Amino acid sequence: MTLPQEALAAPASEPETPLIRRPSGDLICDASLIFDQPGLVRKLDDAAGEAQDALGLRNACVRILRQAKEDGRAAIAKAFQQHPFAARPLTRSYTYLTDCLVTAALHMAQTHMHPLPNPTRGERIALIAVGGYGRGEMAPFSDVDLLFLTPYKITAWAESVIESMLYILWDLKLKVGHSSRTIKDCLRLGAEDFTIRTAMLEHRFLAGYAPLGEELATRLREDLFTGTGRDFIEAKLEEREKRHERQGQRYVVEPNVKEGKGGLRDLQSLFWIAKYIQGVQNAADLVPLGVFRPEEFERFVHAEDFLWAVRAHLHLISGRASEQLTFDRQVEVAGAMGYQDKAGRRAVEVFMQDYFRHATAVGDLTRIFLTKLEATHVKSEPLLERIFRRKPRVRSGYSVIHNRLAVEDETSFLADKLNLLRIFEEGLRTGMLIHPDAMRLVTANLHLIDDDMRQDREATRIFLDLLLKHGNPERALRRMNELGVLAAFIPEFEPVVAMMQFNMYHSYTVDEHIIQCIAQLAQIEKEELVEDLPVASSILKNGVNRKVLYVALLLHDIGKGRSEDHSILGAQIARKVAPRLGLNKSECETVEWLVRYHLLMSDMAQKRDIADPRTVRDFCKAVQTVKRLDLLCVLTVCDIRGVGPDTWNNWKAALIRALYRQARRALETGMEDLNRENRGAEAKKLLRAALPDWSRADLKRETGRHYAPYWQGLHVTAHVVFARLLRDLEDSHDLAEIGIDVHPDEDRDATRACFVMADHPGIFARLAGALALVGANVVDARSYTTKDGNVTGAFWIQDGDGAPYEADRLPRLTQMIHKTLMGQVVPREALKSRDKIKKREKAFEVPTHITFDNEGSDIYTIIEVDTRDRPGLLYDLARTLATANVYIANAVIATYGEQVVDTFYVKDMFGLKYYSESKQKFLEGKLRTAIAEGVERAEG
After folding, report:
1. Count of CB atoms situated within 10 Å of the CB of 885
2. Which of 361, 701, 733, 868 has a CA-to-CA distance to 468 between 20 and 30 Å?
3. Of the candidates 804, 802, 697, the residue with the CA atom closest to the CA atom of residue 743
4. Residue 940 has pLDDT above 80, yes or no
5. Do strands 861-868 and 899-907 pair parallel, antiparallel, or not at all (unpaired)?
6. pLDDT, tens digit (0-9, with 9 covering 90-100), for 141-178
7. Domain spanning 247-377 has what CATH number?
8. Among 119-123, 295-299, 867-871, where is mean pLDDT lowest?
9. What separation, in Å, do the N-terminal and C-terminal C-alpha atoms of the chain show?
């Protein structure tokens, strides 16, 4: 954050600053390539001599400066392509170009448009750059903030000069923020508004009457800044806190480079405070002042350079001022900065890991800096709070400084390297935050955490206690992770630190996801989520091996980022790490199994029909014991909830809960409970009880018209709806009649749409098309043919926000579905203009995988299609299968951000499975063609 040297005012003997500007510091290319000042000054003066009137003069000026601006920007961009990390020369270059354009515009306005040979004292203007422009840090499309300073109330001449100059700058398409004030105005407004005060803190004299600029600098320092440091600091810290609340955590996957946590604004805030309090002109001045150590300042410089480079590339790629690093822009910025695919990871993932590591460094530096301010500049707590607050008792070797845990003697502390772990235990025990000076001490001595310490029993005891004993493992793990202790103690964890998962499903980096999962487990243990998670809460209440569960969660994604399956690789890593953490042989085997199969329950529940006895039977064969089932269920719940704030919902909860209860029952009482006949008899009994007003004959006809899969696949509430719809259909005696019931299923966060009509080929595809046309997302679908030639279809749908349809939208939804099923609207044609992939989603690479499974169901072939999600996909796939004479019994849809897994339970036209490899390849080819054609439509 170097201030340009031309900020120094011109000497009093030469009060009007000359037009020619000197660049400050190194530029990204030769200054003459950015702006040929002597040549352009001559061109401007010549144009002024040739102009016939004021409008012609302005047009000529704009034409000359526009070309100069375009040439200068092109020269900077070209040089930046060759040196994509040269952030500081880049910001200075844009500042230099802007300075030249702004002062040239002022020169034309003062000298040629409104000449005033003998100005009075009141007819003086000092042109001041403020804000980021004043600091001399300009991104390609940064705002140009200007202050026109006058000695007294603005005169007609000054007003004309300012207006003409601004018109020139606006015609140049510069985004100009401006104000016209006297020094008195500046002091008054600065006292009232901290934003204005901050902007003026960074003021830089550009041109005009230099003594006026000097007077402003003196008055600001003496009359406004002096003695108001505490107020300014507290205002900036409050502003920072609100900004972080708006932008979210440091690890959100689409960060704001400027305003987000760990972004440029955090670094700028540090510099503003340092400049306000200590008068520093350069961040390097913070080292001799003792605020930063040399190595910390080096991290400051690297983080700042990196973030500025990212921001500049983002601006150039977007062609405008853009600060949000969206998914599509991440790919482009990574490419512009020269990142390449590496070791099974995409270039964009390597780039974003660097980004998050720099953002973490910014957080560390912020803590260090603010600690130095606390003792002298932050207001004390109210006296009563200080008197009555109970001071925590800390163990020997520690002290309390400003309510934070500090180290009494650094030499004694480092004499026992286990203290590098004990300090986190003491922090949890006392409930105190660790003092940043103690954090610096830990970070500087990570080399002490060696193999001997990793094998030390007391070290593993401390580490496991951090997870198991104090009730807040999230806080300890996050701080250990940020300081590098977690990766030092478990080196296998280091590769996933700040590792981004480049998809729309995960909201956090891998390490943060793991910590979020452990936070979820701690909450369940403290019985804070009993209402939301009754099954997981009861499992923990009844007792499980907590050590196994916490260690398995800590390691479950540790294999990510490599070309191998992360579950298999993670299990191999767990085999090495778990014994090192003091687990016995049996516990190690369980941890390894949980890591290897941590996706099993989630996949079975979301990608398979859990109403099919074979699904539950196969799941039980894999799990084998109730003990494992309990552990896996809790781990699965924490894993899904740790993905992001909106990932878990009642639909997933209902699936996991149902699979768990069926599997537990089967494991405890035997697989016979999964028998189709048993479950069918139970379902029929429930239906009879739910329809007490029906005659025995009606009930007998209803229970006799359905095949076995119908009874095991639906809840009794759906059986009741279908029974009534079928009776109404019979009463109507109209073969073309369609019965529809659309009703919110609050227990599943979805709307259940039930359909009854005469059966005919392709009916499933028609239903899917009708729902796609109304914009509904299908999350589950079941279709059953009756013995008397009708079809019953049950679809669970959500709106575009993943929520059930509100009651007032249901009549219109029903009407539109009815029209489509009656053939009044053709889905295939109507969907062409709708199934577009959003621009930010196009950056994701989602390869298509199609598998055929004849073992997962006793009756059906299971076709699993794993591909990119888009509107109308389910309809395209179902229509393709129907055209190939495939009967679709039901479909299960699992969505993971931009990726979707559509699973179809199918039979051929003779009611047989698809065993033939040639038939499987034929169907796969048809499905791939449908997907490719849909993608082509979606991408326009």
Report:
1. 11
2. 361
3. 804
4. no
5. antiparallel
6. 999 999 999 998 889 999 999 999 999 999 999 999 99
7. 1.20.120.330
8. 119-123
9. 45
Structure tokens that stand for 789 in this block? 């030639």
User: CA dist 169 to 40, 177, 312, 446, 856, Å?
Assistant: 16, 11, 22, 54, 70
Kind plus residue range of the DSSP H or E element containing 750 = strand 750-758
746, 747, 749, 753: CA torsion to nearest 10: -70
Q: Which of 771, 751, 786 lies closest to 872 in space, CA to CA?
A: 771
Are the CB atoms for 211 and 252 separated by under 8 Å?
A: no
What is the DSSP code string of 504-521?
SS--S-HHHHHHHHHHHH
Query: Mean pLDDT lowest for which of 241-255, 462-476, 785-799?
Result: 241-255
Distance CA 920, CA 925 (A): 9
* CA pair distance 861, 912, nearest whole angstrom: 8
Q: Which residues contact 34 (CB under 8 A, 6 or more apart)?
A: 23, 27, 72, 75, 76, 93, 96, 97, 100
Question: What are the tens digits of pLDDT across the range 254-292?
Answer: 889 998 888 898 888 888 888 888 888 777 888 887 778
In terms of Cβ atoms closer than 10 Å to its own Cβ (0-12, 13-18, 19+), residue 889 is buried
Residue 141's nearest CA partner among 321, 314, 309, 319 is 321
β-bridge pairing 433-434 and 404-407: parallel
Largest CA distance in the chain: 112
Q: Taking the domains of the chain in order of start, what are their residue ranges? A: 5-122+129-140+147-226, 247-377, 391-489, 509-588+600-668, 674-938
337, 84 Cβ separation under 8 angstroms: yes
DSSP structure class, residue 256: B
| Closest by Cα among 278, 130, 255, 248 to 195 | 130
pLDDT tens digits, 584-639:
999 999 999 999 999 999 999 999 988 888 899 999 999 999 999 999 999 999 99
Strand order in the sheet with 433-434: 398-401, 404-407, 433-434
Confidence label for 841 from pLDDT (cuts 50, 70 and 90): low
Residue 316 burial by CB count (10 A; 0-12/13-18/19+): exposed, middle or buried? buried
Q: Which of 765-774, 799-808, 916-925 has the highest mean pLDDT?
A: 916-925
Task: Single out the residue of 551, 467, 607, 466 nearest to residue 905, CA to CA.
Answer: 607
Q: Determine phi and psi for 895, rounding to 5 degrees.
A: -110, 135
Tokens representing 96?
């230099």
As its CATH architecture, domain 391-489 has: Orthogonal Bundle (1.10)
pLDDT of 25-41, one tens digit each?
Answer: 789 999 999 999 888 88
Judge whether residue 731 has pLDDT over 70. Answer: yes
Q: Which residues contact 570 (CB under 8 A, 6 or more apart)?
A: 555, 556, 557, 558, 559, 560, 595, 596, 598
Q: What are phi and psi of 678, to 5 degrees?
A: -60, -45
Phi-psi region of 279 (alpha: psi -120 to 50; beta: other; left: phi over 0): left
CB 374 within 8 A of CB 435: no
3-class DSSP state for residue 847?
coil
Rounded to an integer, what distance in angstroms lies between the CA atom of residue 325 and that of residue 248? 14
Q: Structure tokens of 332?
A: 């482009």
- Burial (Cβ within 10 Å: 0-12, 13-18, ≥19) of residue 804: buried
d(CA 374, CA 370): 6
Helices (H), 743-892: 763-773, 810-821, 827-830, 873-883
% of residues, the chain, pLDDT over 90? 54
How many residues does the structure list for the chain?
940
In which residue are the tokens 């922090």 written?
427
Candidate ranges 538-552, 640-654, 664-678; pick with highest mean pLDDT: 538-552
- Nearest-Å Rg of the Cα atoms of the chain is 34
